[in-house]
Design brief:
Shape of chain A: globular
Order of helices and strands of chain A: HEHEHHEHEHHHHEEEHEHEHEHEE
Radius of gyration of chain B: 29 Å
Radius of gyration of chain A: 19 Å
Largest sheet of chain A: 10 strands, mixed
Number of helices of chain A: 13
Oligomer: heterodimer
Number of strands of chain B: 20
Helix content of chain A: 25-40%
Order of helices and strands of chain B: EHEEEEEEEEEHEEEEEEEEEEH
Helix content of chain B: under 10%
Distance between the termini of chain A: 24 Å
Largest interface: A-B, 63 and 63 residues
Structural class of chain B: mainly beta
Strand content of chain B: 35-45%
Shape of chain B: elongated
Strand content of chain A: 15-25%
Strand order of the largest sheet of chain B: 7-6-5-8-9
Number of helices of chain B: 3
Chain lengths: 361, 329
Amino acid sequence: MTTRERLSRSDEDIAIVAVAQTPSHRHYDDSEASMLMDLTNQLLAESGLERSAVDFTIAGSCDYLSGMPFAFVSNVDGFGAWPPVYESHLEMDGAWALFEAWVRLSVGDIDIALVAGSGKSSPGNPREIFPLQTDPYTAAPLGLDPASVAGLQARALLDAGLATERDFAEVVSRSRRDALSNPNAQVKKDVSADALLAEPYYASPLRKHDLPPISDGAAAVLIARGKRARELAKKPVWIRAIDHRIDSHHLGLRDLTDSPSARLAAKGVGLHDGPIDVAELCVRYSPEEIVLRRALELAPGTAVNPSGGPLCGHPVMATGLVRVIEVARRIREGRARRGVAHAASGPALQQNLLCVLEGDA
Amino acid sequence: MSALPPVHYRLEYPYTRTTGPIVGAFLTALRDGKLLGIRCRGRVLCPPLEYDPETSETLAPDFVEVGPTGTILSWTWIAEPSRKHPFAEPFAFALIRPDGADGAICHALKASGPDALRTGGRVRAQYREERRGAITDLYFAPEAEAEDRYVPPGKGAVEMTEHLISLDYTEPLSPHRERYAKGLLDGKFIGQKSPASGKVYLPSKGYDPIERVRMSERDDVVVSDRGTVVAYTVITPVQYYGQKETEPYIRASILLDGADQPLGQQDIRSIGVADFRSGMRVRAVWKPKAERSIADVDNRWGGTGEVIERWEPTGEPDLPFEKIMEHNW
């Protein structure tokens, strides 16, 4: 039995007991910390907890997005700087913060953690910032940006006969239509694939609508262990498993039509041990949905990105945690019993994290 | 007063990296107009890696020249290049397998247009006139459009690379920070008084971080321009990238009367290091109104702009340490 299985099958299961997210804004006129403060207050109000009852706080954010060294330190203000608690930070999406918090609670000495992710992409230029994630000798000096890499991935799918340009447009059309019922979505519209296909290329064979919008936003969840979870929430949403896998950072060594790391993560979380009612996938570029559907072997009955997904709102560093929240919300509302949230980082789905959530039977 | 213009700022990190024996050999070869791969269990990888991507084992420096021709495995036409891209005019990024290599290199492809490109198409390595031992020395072109140029070899091995990360940001001041900035132009320090704790924050971040309460314009208060030095440091400038100072200087935290949070990073030029001390009472001498600038006030650092001529001693007796110890660190 792996560590992961042992952790998730113990009597000390860990659940999401409250969720909060800001809308995805084109520009938010105050700080990340101020957004996190609103979310923290919402979570505490919903769970009836005092701030002092939170044992551990952890945030995911990106200093390059914020445009300041140590920007993440001021984000701690959002949680309330007093009283001090165990505190951690990742230069990763909030979904990875959830992973760390889940592992931290599994140690067994503390019960409650507050997890957040936040980012403001509007002040900077994401297209110039994200090449810095790539190899510093052979890729970053070329300004190799995620949209361009998504274009390479799209072409590889076309050439392999695994998708058509219409498939990409259909992903966008469906996502934007689904986003009409999501109050937090930034881009929503009933638009046909035909209308989308009439637009000019941006990073051929991709068009601008195949890319995510530039967004500001934040997301946060409160998680609790065992008995405490049942006390704090009428309908706790149990975290059954989380796994994170990475493909090579050398694009030329990867088969861009597939995602071996997503496949491995799916195996790691036991994705197919039961039916999956809903999957919220971190589809930042429309071809990624094609790749992920294949890699995760999703059944036709699984609802994919009913929120509209990142194509309709992409608050970088919160986008992955928003996927977790969207799945948790559906389980809590009784619209799904078991679901999977996916978070991604790096160009062309280089890093993949899966989180399986379940309601009570 | 009308709205202030958006704030622009630039974040820069000049990276200098050692190349090591594998990347160094690759970049040295690029400078000399050659493309190198490395042998890895029967395969040839280009660009060469220091390790086997499957087993993570260290690879011996067993290089083999590949290219200069190769095959397009995938490509995307970049209609609107970014400032960081290798070409200002539309071009392609492509995955290219150099002849003699397995796997591909991702690089820029300069072509007359997207119609000149197709998966499976043949390309040739091209080298820039000025080369400095970097990945940008190279680009590719479709074989039909490529030029055959003699590339004179350079001197020595490429042991270092330089990469200046330079990012630009533009955003409006947040509403509370804008009121603070306008106050500075007006010769006033505008802080915010927490409705929860009564503590006065200056400059305010728009919230009380202890009580977790957001604040609004109703909570704005004007704070005195007199105060007490609660902490300071004497900085001897190190000449790093971007350093503008050459002589030792003082940075002080000043707790203005009526505020609960010291104003940090105050530049002290007119009081000597020997005379300066915590507890000293000082007051702001404002610049003439026409000379005041808030160019360096932003949402991040706060700053006091170019509005204060200098801080000068008021001549009042020093405050005892017990009165300032909460702010002295």
